[in-house]
Amino acid sequence: MRSKLLTFMGLLVLASLVLSACAQEPAAGDDEVAALQDQLDSALASADASEGEIADLQAALEAAQAAAAAAEEEAVEPEEAPIGPPTLLYNWNTEPPTADPSLATDTTSSYVIGSIFMGLTDIDDTTKEAIPSLATSWAPNEDSTVWTFQLRDDVPWVQYNVSTGEVDQLTDADGNPSFVTAQDVVYGVKRTCDPNTASDYAYIVYVVAGCEALNTADPSAEDFQDLYDAVGVEALDGATVQFTLAYGAGFFPQIATMQTLFPVPQATVEEFGDRWIEPGLIVTNGAYVMSEWVHGDHLTLEKNPFWPYWGTDYGSGNVERLFGVTIEEASTGFAMYENNELDTASLPIDQIARVKADSVLSQEFVNVPINCTYYYGFVTEKPPTDDVRVRRALSMAIDRQTLVDEVTQGGQIPANTFTNPLNFGSAAGDTDIAPWTLPEEMGGTGYEAAVALGKELLADAGFPNGAGLEILLMHNVSEGHARIAQAIQAMWQAAYPEMTANVETQEWGVYLDTIRASSAIEQVPNVFRLGWCGDYPHANNWLHEVFNPEEGANRIRLSADDPQVGDLVALYTETTKAAQTAGEAEAAKLYKQAEQLLIDDIAGIAPIYYYTTVNVTKPWLERSYDPIQMHLFQWNLDADARDSALTK
Questions:
Q1: Does one domain contain both 101 and 64?
Q2: What is the per-residue pLDDT across 392-426, written as a single tens digit (0 to 9) for each?
Q3: What separation in angstroms does the CA of 15 have from each of 8, 78, 216, 375?
Q4: Same domain, yes or no, for 71 and 144?
Q5: CA–CA separation, 396 vs 607, rounded Å?
Q6: Quick check: is 484 in a domain?
Q7: How many CB atoms lie within 10 A of CB 46?
Q8: In angstroms, rounded to a whole number, what is the distance separating the alpha carbons of residues 216 and 226?
Q9: Is residue 296 part of a domain?
Q10: Half-sphere CA count of 150, side-chain side, radius 13 A
Q11: Are 620 and 637 in contact (CB under 8 A)?
Q12: Is 543 a domain residue?
C-alpha cells in the first residue's frame, strides 16, 4: 500500500520532470551492448575461453553500457508537463460499507455519498441552518404538515467514463442532457421506504406520511402497491416536489438534508441492481464522481465539471481529485501523514502528547468540539444486561473523567446525556440527569460514590462484588476503540473484582450487521460501542430516531413488554413523539425527560463522552470537520505550496 502511495505522490510532485519517451528508436549503442553481452555469455559458457578474454569482454561491456547511458541522457531533453490537478491525499479510515443513499448508516458512507450526490437541502457549517442545495426554496403550510420544495433545473445526471477518464452527462432519447427532476426525488424517497430495499435508515423518513406503513408491510401483500402509492411525496411538476408529513415538523428542511431523501437514478438502479454503485455504472448528481473503488484498498473521486455550484460561495473549493485509502489503523494513517503521503489524518491517542509538544506538528493539530457522542449500548434482551440494575451498575463504573484525561486525551467532555450539546433540545451537563456519570467538579456525585451505588445494585441483582457476572463487550476494529475498551474493562474489574468482561472486535461492515436490532440474540454482545453524529442539529434525530422502539433504529432493543422497565419504555416513546409537535420550550422539557428515562431509569446506554476532532492537517489544506457533511467542494488545497514543501 505504502509503495503505491509513494509512487502516486511522486508522480504528482515530479510531473514537470516527466520525460517524453514514446515510440523512440533504439539507440545505436544499444546494439553494441547487446552484441557484447552475447559474446560474454558465450565465453562464460565455453570451456575454452581464458580468464583474460572474459575480463576483456566484461570491461568492454561496461564501457559500452556507460557510453550508451551517456548518449541517451544527452539525446533526451526533459519536457515540461503541466502540474496535475489539485489532488487531495486522504484516508477514509475504513472501507465505506456502501455508496447507496438509501442504505448508508455510517459517517464514512455519508462522506462519500454527500460528495457524489446532492439532496434537497444542506446544513450550513457555521449556522447549522438548512440552506439551498438541489432545492432553491421551500415553504410549509400553516401547521407544517405539508412542505413544498422548488428545485433547480440545471443539475444533470452524470457518469464517470472509465474508458476515457472523462465525466459524461447522461442524455435522453433525443440526445439532450438529462437533468434531475422532482420525480427522481419521489423515486429516491419511496425506494428508501420500500421494504424490498432493506434500508436500515428508513425510520428517518417515517416523518413522511405513509413511509412507516410501507416500510413495515409485507411486499407480497395485496395492497402493497396501494401503500407504495400512498407515501406522502409527490411531483407536482418537473421542478416541484411536495411532502405530506405524518405530523407537523417545523424542522423538516433539516431532515431534507438526509441521504435517505436524495434523488436516485431509477433506470440505473433497476438495470444493475446491487452493482449500480460501482465505478463505470453509478450515475450521480453531486460535486464529484466516483472514478475508482478498489475494495479494501482505495476509493477515488474526480471533480464533476457539470455541477452548477462551482465558482460560487457554496462551491468555493478547488480539489479536483481525491485519492482516498481505506486504512483503519490510525497509527498507519498518521505515519503516512508524517511521510507526506496524506494531507490530513486522524491522530492516534498515543501520539497526541508528542504532537502537542512538537513545534511543527502542534501547528497542524486540530482539536475542536464536533456534534457526536461516544456511547456503549446495552442489549436489553440479552442476559445479564436484560437486568436494569446490571446496566446501571456497569454505567456507574465507567470513570469518564479519567478516561478523557488519561486515555483519549483529546479534550473530550464527559457525557451524562446522549444528545450532544450542539443540538436543540440537549440537556447535556444538567445534573438532574444521571449525576453519577459526572465528576464532582461538574456537579456530579463523583466516581467513588458512583461505584458504591453500583455495588449495591449488583448485589441486589444477585452478583455481589460482580460474582457470577459475565458479559461480552464488542467494538469495531480500531486502535482507539481498543484502548477505550481495555480501560473500561479494567475499570469494571477494579470496581467489581469478581466479574468477567470479555472483549471482541469485528470489521466495520460486519460489526454493523452484527449489532442490528434484527440480528439473532445469540450473535449480539451484551454491550456494543457506537458513536452517534447528528444528521441534523435537533434532539429528535438523537432520542427519537435512534432509540424509539417503534420508529427508531433501537439497536438496544427497548420494548414496552420489558418486565422491568416496559412502562418506562412506553413513556419514553410517548415523550419523544410529543416533543415533535411541541413548542420549543415545552419540547426542551420533554427531551430532558426523555434523557432521564433513557440514561437513568431505563439505562439503555452508557453515554461516555462528547467528541472532539483530534486531527492533523497540513498547512496547504483548508478543510472543514463536520462529522456528517464532508463538504469536500469547499476544501482548498494549495498544490504549489505542497510541491514546494516536498521538494525542499
A1: no
A2: 999 999 999 999 999 999 999 999 999 999 999 99
A3: 11, 11, 56, 47
A4: no
A5: 11
A6: yes
A7: 11
A8: 14
A9: no
A10: 4
A11: yes
A12: yes
pLDDT tens digits for range 303-331: 999 999 999 999 999 999 999 999 999 99
Q: Are 121 and 256 contacting, i.e. CB atoms less than 8 angstroms apart?
A: yes
Give the end of a domain, one of 248, 267, 284: 284
What is the torsion angle, in degrees rounded to the nearest 10, for the CA atoms of residue 198, residue 202, residue 206 and residue 209? -60
Cβ-based burial of 220 (10 A; exposed 0-12, middle 13-18, buried ≥19): exposed
Looking at the fold, whether 540 and 454 belong to one and the same domain comes out as: yes
Q: What is the pLDDT of residue 550?
A: 85
Task: Please say if the pLDDT value at position 348 is more than 70.
Answer: yes
Residue 403, C-alpha cell as written in the block? 478516561
Q: How confident is the model at residue 77 (pLDDT cuts 50, 70, 90)?
A: very low
Q: Round to whole Å and give the CA distance between 648 and 339.
A: 14
How far is the C-alpha of 320 from the C-alpha of 95, rounded, in Å? 22
Helix/strand/coil for 112: helix
DSSP 424: B
Count Cα neighbours of 139 within 13 Å in the Cβ-side half-sphere. Answer: 4
Distance in angstroms (rounded) separating the CA atoms of residues 99 and 96: 7
pLDDT tens, residue by residue, 451-483: 999 999 999 999 999 999 999 999 999 999 999
Rounded Cα gap, residues 377 and 519, in angstroms: 15
Residues 375 and 483 in one domain: yes
In whole angstroms, what is the distance from residue 599 CA to residue 568 CA?
12
Write the pLDDT tens digit of every residue in 174-183.
Answer: 999 999 999 9
Q: Which stretch of 4-13, 101-110, 140-149, 502-511 has the lowest confidence by average pLDDT?
A: 4-13
Contacts of 388 (CB under 8 A, 6+ apart): 564, 565, 601, 602, 603
Cell numbers representing residue 28 in the block: 545505436
Q: Which residues contact 561 (CB under 8 A, 6 or more apart)?
A: none
pLDDT band at 13 (very low <50, low <70, confident <90, very high): very low
Q: Is 480 exposed, middle or buried (0-12, 13-18, 19+ CB in 10 A)?
A: buried
Backbone phi, psi, residue 404, to 5°: -75, -25
Query: How high does pLDDT run on average in the chain?
Result: 91
